[in-house]
Amino acid sequence: MKAMRLHAPRRALELDEVAAPEPGPGEVLLRVRACGVCRTDLHIADGELEGGRLPIVPGHEIVGTVAARGEGAGRFAEGDRIGVPWLGWSCGECGHCRAGRENLCDRARFTGFHRDGGYADYALADERFCFALPSTYGDVEAAPLLCAGLIGYRALAMAGDARRIGIYGFGAAAHIVAQVAAYQGRELYAFTRPGDSVAQDFARNLGCRWAGDSDATAPEQLDAALLFAPVGALVPLALAATRKGGSVVCAGIHMSDIPSFPYALLWGERSLKSVANLTRRDGEKFLRLAPLARVRTEVRRYPLPEANAALGDLRRGALSGAAVLVPV
Ligand SMILES: [Zn+2]
Ligand SMILES: [Zn+2]
Q1: 264 CA to centre of ligand 1 in angstroms
Q2: pTM of the model as a whole
């Protein structure tokens, strides 16, 4: 089978011919139909995350059909279409796992980081961590739901019942969470790279009340802010835009350093928190909600061998919505 593999950080992925893997106990082998490209893949390719495996097949927004099942795997039938997210395995025994916070498990194994992911013709997954997918989405359209959608949803949930929500960085996650938040009757304010009028128009078309530059002042004080851009300098700006008692939620796995800022920005019981990974419960809840909220994903398709071009477009901010790889 063909796989796009990362052999060393800061090098382009290489198109390798490798043996198709065999499913072990509890695993399914998937024929990959589509795999989303996430900013985390860019952080992995750039060597910004510690602890991953090399060489690795990135990709943790996998839509595939079950081609074979390992011993004891019976949750899905051969031919079923399922999704594989970033959380590929957790221990099930530690305090975090037992408290329903498997996203924080110290021994968690992540797809496309510790385990080979979906930038390939075939991928293996532990069936317990896979999701059934709503039938209303095509393969390519479903892929971004599996990380951009899930993480956006977890970040939005952390904002509680906040009504006026600021979104910093309007890429794949934001374009999905904006539709969910609009469905829930919230008011959205989108902050983009200064001068990015394409992203600002995109945000308004998806129901945002206002869209402007990240250093602009929003027309209203925010109840909460969600940061999807990996830019630490946005944290003080977001705190300054948020009312007393409100929260600022950082949704990325990696962020540049946060500059020091006056305590007055945090004072007034504002809170600053991060979102780490996902739980299976998040996935189940979000994948039920997405079709109800009529979430539509804006996707750009790339043939699998063009994974480097997709990562390059993501790096340059040249995408509206999400890039998705399709095996050829
Ligand atoms: Zn991701
Ligand atoms: Zn655990």
Answers
A1: 33
A2: 0.95
